[in-house]
Amino acid sequence: MTIHERELEVIEEFSDLDEWMDKYNYLIEMGRDIPALDTTCKTDQYLIQGCQSRVWLQAEFQSGKINYSADSDAIITKGIAALLIRVLNESTPDEILNADLEFIDTIGLKEHLSPTRSNGLVSMLKQMRYYALAYKTKSSN
Amino acid sequence: MTIHERELEVIEEFSDLDEWMDKYNYLIEMGRDIPALDTTCKTDQYLIQGCQSRVWLQAEFQSGKINYSADSDAIITKGIAALLIRVLNESTPDEILNADLEFIDTIGLKEHLSPTRSNGLVSMLKQMRYYALAYKTKSSN
Amino acid sequence: MNDFPIDTIREDFPLLKAQVNKTRLVYFDNAATTQKPVQVIDTIDNLYRNQNSSIHRSVNYLSGKMTEAYEGARETVRRFVHANNSREIIFTAGATASINLVATSFGEAFIEEGDEVLVSAMEHHSNIVPWQLLCDRKKARLKVLPVNDIGELQMDQLPILLTERTRLIAVTQVSNAMGVINPVNEIIRQAHEKNIPVLIDGAQSIQHGQINVQEMDCDFYVFSGHKVYGPTGIGVLYGKEKWLEAMPPYQGGGDMIDRVSFSGTSFNVLPFKFEAGTTNYVGAIALGAALEYIEHIGLDHIDAYEIALNDYAGNALRSIPGIRIFGDSKMKHPIFSFLLENIHPYDAGMVLDKLGIAIRTGTHCAMPLMEHFGIDGTIRASMCFYNTKEEVDRFVEGINTVQEMFG
Amino acid sequence: MNDFPIDTIREDFPLLKAQVNKTRLVYFDNAATTQKPVQVIDTIDNLYRNQNSSIHRSVNYLSGKMTEAYEGARETVRRFVHANNSREIIFTAGATASINLVATSFGEAFIEEGDEVLVSAMEHHSNIVPWQLLCDRKKARLKVLPVNDIGELQMDQLPILLTERTRLIAVTQVSNAMGVINPVNEIIRQAHEKNIPVLIDGAQSIQHGQINVQEMDCDFYVFSGHKVYGPTGIGVLYGKEKWLEAMPPYQGGGDMIDRVSFSGTSFNVLPFKFEAGTTNYVGAIALGAALEYIEHIGLDHIDAYEIALNDYAGNALRSIPGIRIFGDSKMKHPIFSFLLENIHPYDAGMVLDKLGIAIRTGTHCAMPLMEHFGIDGTIRASMCFYNTKEEVDRFVEGINTVQEMFG
Ligand SMILES: Cc1ncc(COP(=O)(O)O)c(C=O)c1O
Ligand SMILES: Cc1ncc(COP(=O)(O)O)c(C=O)c1O
After folding, report:
1. pLDDT per residue over D202-260, tens digit each?
2. Ligand 2 site, residue C224, Cβ cutoff 6 A
3. Residue D262: its pLDDT value, please?
């Protein structure tokens, strides 16, 4: 599946969730489902600035593809991270850098995470793109 | 004439002046009528703080009575000083300290000199009372 | 609690009718900022529509009116805090600006290398960082009065911490993070025995009852307008005249001078010496209107109502399973900081927000206090006299929902 | 001048309809403070009624909205002054506060004993006294660029005054006392050749046309909200990022920190590093509304209209017998400072006030400039784009009356 196809999948799943409560519950489940980061990885090096809860994000590069893993002490934040990871994982740096990620607007994630909070979302995305850029530069050297 | 009688006189004179223009012209004339202070007296010692134009005030004490003289570089201010002098001159310190000077409100002097300006009026009066107090203390020693 | 005209009062605050996420807002973030009664909002509106003119220096009619209103507001503040005279009332941009003024100006005059400034462990960052910056500049030492397990000052440590090098104590009257009320009278008494002046951070006490700076005998008292139902951008520094006279000016500019020339400048008298530039005169007058508004309701009534609300909310919260309340002291205002077992405050805050309940999560600008408790932050609900038992009930229900969602 | 929709514009400013002493007010004190359009007044009203909540730190919906609006206002300011990025835009309490921030913080980092700061002889006290206080603290020297007979800077003196000890030039773009426009581009060019940064006091330029800090290449630019049709208690400091990064924090408090602990505190990134405590967020958003309002009218239109008004008023005034105009330069905005032969400005001001004409008399916070001209003060009439030729006519009539009364 491409990033775009996974986006469509997420949009599809969210379309059934009318109430904010359902959306939150969905995020909570997503957050519970992804594996916790090893405590040794929860270091300042992986900490993302600009979130109201602590978020750690890691990325691995194998066979030309990136795999992210993330954790947060707040479960909704972790759910958001999980969602981003689900859409972006197993992609090449270029695919990640070129993705427009319209699903974020479509499913109303930003709107449901009021501005100060969506900063966290924005910071996570930014960090994910940084990783992609770093690996792209690295692999083209 | 007592202070009170002179107040009534001033009130009487003002009662003919309906327009602010007439009142101002009256003050301008009063200002022109009193003798200018000698330049040697226009020193910081006699300068009154808190007026928007410079006002110098002097007082002499003779035979138990106070005589003020004043000058200002603004003619309306000088007129106000002249009015106060006219009412208060030739009085004992006690008479001055006990005067309630209702004429100021009655003729609408304060109202016609908006608040920042009436500060000048207030400062002049304060300084006149200071003199009276000083001479009273002196003469009772 | 029953004779308090709460319905009429709530009518005065337009924002209390706001809808968030299709439900009526419950505004429990009053320690951050308070809502404004129409009396304040209309004052601002009216000033800009009918009276706006720069104060103090103009000859014109409007300017005179505005000056009168501004100086009238100063007198209102003086009366409200019971200062001796209005020269002791300085308008600033807020509590933070007031504290910085004292830290810089008092610091300049009275703090030397090796001297000590004492703050408490529960201070707001605004009552810590200015002193840290001062101590850095002057090579002075910042000392800390610790708090105990329930968030009260460890008063037995005070006599030990007051040394002959202590030059100032800066302490809050009420903790913004927990609502705990400090025994400031006792602190001031002990300090004055050793001739040490005391600055009281009144940012969280001004809105909850009578303030009498003369009885308290504090040397400085600061607060923000926006936390006492007034506008943003305005605050107050009360200082005893003897200190303010002895302190050098803080900021330079228009209005704070007597004469300016390149060969030397002399400064204006109090309070103007500390009010450089065009002041926030509209803000000051609107703050005056806010204080008059709560005087009109009655400070004693407000206090009584808030005590009842504090008891009610405290009991309700304490009965929630898995809750841990910080600063559960007997002496407090209705500000509650707590954690729910296994639930991150941020998760709780997001859900409560969706339920229309505005609270705050995080460190509440009191990181050292959080460090003391060994935590990252709390959920804080802060109430005032326009809040109701019904709102507390909705809040408790909200917490139940949170617990169900994350349980 | 004729296609400018002056009638519609005047409708936007409620105060222009005020009556003073039973006549329609002529407001010619715009250099002191400007009037506010309903767009600004309503913004404030709406924020307090429907949206008020503390910014940046809360999780709740209103707070998020308010934060967005506040940061949106910062972006509006950035666009308006054409700054490179919004980290370079700091909200302060006003121009005076902005200058004091730079004097203290830049001064702390970059001014040492024996260094020099250059200001001009026509500066407002707010752009003199902070530098005097700094120079006193640091044993540095304040040098003065003189003005000529018609109130223009003596630019030929500039190269002589710029020495290797000059660390900063602080100069106004437009004289508040005379309206004279200074050749700031040329000053900045010469300064930068010698690597000297320049602070531009924009308190009197921001309201009169396009400002482009990048083209101008100034290092700092300051202004006040209340002089550009915005509210009191808010101002702006623009600073090049490289300077702001290198400068230590000014005031300490909430929001300007990253982490606070008693063992050491780290500071927040720009612009927050310089915004301690709860900012005047309502003021900032209303300032944004003011800037949007004049953008909407069109800065070029405003400029063209004001040039025409300046010409009209200049001609009318120059034809008055016995008038002496100070700063009668060709490069100026419609601010007029003058004296009438044998008439004290204060007397003139009092009579003009009674005629419903609000002007200012005195030194206009520019005593050194008055000293230069050897006078005590002037009568100042300062106009802006909502003033009209008819008002100028009434003003000239008023001066005739004054001359008759005191002639
Ligand atoms: C040129 C100039 N600089 C600085 C200021 C100070 O502005 P504010 O008083 O709003 O801080 C003014 C206004 O009074 C001014 O005209
Ligand atoms: C106890 C305390 N002190 C100081 C402050 C700072 O007030 P402001 O941010 O209004 O300057 C606050 C509010 O945030 C506070 O709660």
Report:
1. 999 999 989 999 999 999 999 999 999 999 999 999 999 999 999 999 999 988 998 99
2. yes
3. 94
Summarised one tens digit per residue, pLDDT across range D252-283 is 998 899 899 999 899 999 999 999 999 999 99
**Residue D302 backbone phi and psi in degrees, to 5:** -60, -45
From the CA of C97, how far away is ligand 2's center (Å)? 10
Positions of chain C with pLDDT under 70: 1-2, 57-58
Domain CATH number, residue D330: 3.90.1150.10
Residue A120's pLDDT band, with cuts at 50, 70 and 90, is confident
**Whole-number average pLDDT of chain D:** 96
Q: What number of C-beta contacts closer than 8 Å exist between B and C? A: 20
pLDDT of residue A116: 56
Domains of chain A: 3-136 (3.90.1010.10)
Residues D290 and D315 in one domain: no
To probe the interface with B, which of C51, C61, C62, C270 has the most B CB atoms within 10 Å? C61
Q: Min CA distance, B130 vs chain D (Å)?
A: 26
Q: How many folded domains does chain C comprise?
A: 2
Q: What is the pLDDT of residue C1?
A: 60
Count residue pairs from A and C with Cβ separation < 8 A: 34
Question: Chains near A, with 3+ CB pairs < 8 A?
Answer: C, D
Asked if residue C288 is part of any domain, the answer here is: yes
Name the residue among C164, C235, C224, C228 with its Cα closest to residue C194: C164
pLDDT-derived band at A50 (thresholds 50, 70, 90) equals: low
Secondary structure element (H or E) that encloses residue D239, with its range: strand D235-239
pLDDT-derived band at B53, boundaries 50, 70, 90: confident
H-helix segments, D319-386: 345-354, 367-373
Chains that touch B (3 or more CB pairs under 8 A): C, D
The answer to whether B12 and B100 are in contact (CB under 8 A) is no
Domain range holding C302? 6-30+298-406
User: What 3-state class would DSSP assign to C335?
Assistant: strand
d(CA B47, CA B37): 12
Q: Do D60 and A52 touch (CB under 8 A)?
A: no
CB contact under 8 A, D64 and A52: no
Chain D residue numbers with beta carbons less than 8 Å from the beta carbon of C45 are 41, 44-45
Q: What ligand is nearest to the CA atom of residue C98?
A: 2
Structure tokens, D118: 């250059």
Q: Which ligand is nearest to the CA of D32?
A: 1
**pLDDT band per the 50, 70, 90 thresholds, residue B39:** confident
Kindly state the helix (H) or strand (E) to which residue C141 belongs, with its residue range.
Answer: strand C141-145
Please write the tens of the pLDDT for every residue from C337-360: 999 999 999 999 999 999 999 999
Q: Give the residue, out of C124, C147, C222, with the most ligand 2 atoms within 8 A of its beta carbon, to mutate for a pocket test.
A: C124
Is there a contact between C347 and A113 if contact means CB atoms under 8 Å apart? no
The distance of D260 to chain C (nearest Cα, Å) reads 6
The answer to whether C275 and C90 are in contact (CB under 8 A) is yes
> Tokens in use for C328?
């559960």
Cβ(D329)–Cβ(D267) under 8 Å?
no
Tell me: do C257 and C312 sit in the same domain: no
Identify whether D35 is part of a domain. Answer: no
C231 lines ligand 2 (CB under 6 A): no
What is d(CA D14, CA D131) in angstroms, rounded to the nearest whole number?
Answer: 38
Q: Are A48 and A55 contacting, i.e. CB atoms less than 8 angstroms apart?
A: yes
